Amino acid sequence: MLSITFTTPEGDVLVETTMTDSDTVMEVAVREGVPGIVAECGGSMSCATCHVYLEPQANEAFEPKEDMERDLIDGLENCSALSRLSCQLYPAQSEGEVVVTVPDSA
Amino acid sequence: MRGTTPPEHAGTIIIGGGQAGSQTAVSLREAGYTDRIVLIAAEPYLPYQRPPLSKAFLAGDAQPATLALRGEPAYARHDIEVMVGDAVTAIDAARALVQRASGAELSWDHLVLAVGGRPSELDVPIIDGATGDLVTSTSSLEGVHLLRTADDALALRAAASKVSRLVAIGGSFIGLEVAASLSSRGVAATVLVRGDRLMSRVVHPYVADIFRRAHLARGVSLEFGAQVTALVADGRRVAAVQLSDGRRVEADCVVVGIGLTADTALAEQIGLVIDRGILVDDAGRTSHPAIYAAGDCATRLLASGATERTESVHNAVQQAKAVAAAIVEAAPPSKQVPWFWSDQFDLKLQTVGDTGHDTDTTVFAGDTPEKLVVEHRRDGVLVGVTAVSSPREFLQYRRELDRSHAVVNAQA
């Protein structure tokens, strides 16, 4: 199981839990009720309200970005080099610990 | 038996396990509400998302649990009691009680109706395919589906592996999404469209035409000007759909997607004002001061005196937040410009704001014929945007519209 910790940009822990190979990070966040991950469109890449930041090392635990995700992230106001859409974060490894930062909601 | 013990009490009871119900509960907690919250859902699932039922869920093989809007840990964290598989059968407004199917009564300070709606049924006769006689049996015809719940979608998915000819009645979102999702499962699909354009009520003609070509190119048949006059039966099963102009379209599976009727049964029983839905003000208050309504079941009374009922995730979330704010007597939430999406094959349709047919439009072509953005203006001011497979541009426009909307609100 992959251990996953959701934090605020200041590093305060929001939720600590685990995820399986069949989960996306968005699904975990929704299940746990992580504040700031709205996921309005349910993972169909229509809304970008599941935006998170991932440190490069944590990025390796997940499948890489595809074109549509990259495109949508470009349209976000608070996007950075660390931006990912959590609905596209499918685990690429089944062990380890990752930290996911939830942006401040406007 | 009714004893002398008073019924259990909850500060707020929410009836309905959809987007609006779940959001009201969470927004109440986020607004600092501390009383007991009970959400009662008739279906045997935690409140779940409905949009995927005609899209990815229908095309794929995920289980209903994956549709949940929030999981049990989320409700536990917010101290929200969710009672699934238990319908409310009656409301006693004078005594502030709800009666549950399971028998138990519950009393409330605030009641929220987030009961949604049910798909409109096709009101046409059934005729025998061999004799042409009217089939008088009142039992429904096998192979005819409505789509609203996860169980409806599961039934349709199971049927899809056994049928070869799907006919979707209705050329709007449900019909088109179901045709796209089931053709990706290998079913030959035909969509019957009443008028001469797809999604004619809501989508710009130029955009409708892109979708027309996209469906045709991917093997979906489209029949325009199709007025259904009867369903044709072969024994107890549907065999075809009869149209008024003599066309008969063969089908071993029919999906009826001709609109949604708000579920107003409970509201009517207690005498709330109804106008195609449960009439509410901006804060979601019904005509009873302690009863609120939100989502597909609610009709909003606008300042102009006109009324509007909107079926969308965005609307359900906004109305739920407004209801929560009203219950805790907080300032109403800031309004976002309404938006909507539909996925059909690999095409993504997104609209935001006012995209009415009477707006002035400018079309911006994308880098493929199936990508474009339409700007909608009134008196030169951008009021809405329609985007096809252009999610990044859409997001930017949506933000721009939210920003200008906020400015207008601040000046009002």
From TrEMBL, chain A:
Keywords: 2Fe-2S, Iron, Iron-sulfur, Metal-binding. Residues 2-106 form the 2Fe-2S ferredoxin-type domain. GO terms for biological process: P450-containing electron transport chain. PROSITE patterns: 2FE2S_FER_2, ADX. Its cofactor is [2Fe-2S] cluster. GO terms for molecular function: 2 iron, 2 sulfur cluster binding; electron transfer activity; metal ion binding. Coiled coil: none annotated. SUPFAM superfamilies: 2Fe-2S ferredoxin-like. It comes from the Bacteria. Belongs to the adrenodoxin/putidaredoxin family. PANTHER family: FERREDOXIN-2, MITOCHONDRIAL (PTHR23426:SF65), FERREDOXIN/ADRENODOXIN (PTHR23426). This is (2Fe-2S)-binding protein. It comes from Microcella pacifica.
